Amino acid sequence: MDLVSMVSDVMVAKAGALQTQVATTLLKQNLDAQKSTVLTLLGAGQQPSLANVGAGIGNNLNISA
Questions:
Q1: pLDDT value at position 64?
Q2: Which of 9, 43, 59, 64 is the most exposed place for a label (fewest CB within 10 A)?
Q3: pTM of the full predicted structure?
């Protein structure tokens, strides 16, 4: 194997590693965006916590009267 072939092989390997790194980064960003979309659709984080409120707060309200 001559020197030019070895250098070429190393350059191809580095290019492949870079492509893999870019693909992994884009995949993670895509998955994060999808997670955000799902949480938005499910309404996560929009309901306040009722852990420290008094008794009867947060119960169903009868508005038929």
A1: 73
A2: 64
A3: 0.55
DSSP assignment letter at 50: -
- CA distance to 32, 39, 64, per residue, from 1 (Å): 45, 55, 87
- pLDDT tens for 21-64 read 999 999 999 999 999 988 888 876 566 666 777 777 767 766 77
What are the CA-CA distances from residue 20 to residues 5, 13, 17, 34 (Å)?
A: 22, 11, 5, 21
Measure the CA–CA gap between 10 and 6, rounded to whole angstroms. Answer: 6
Q: Extract the tokens encoding 11.
A: 């350059």
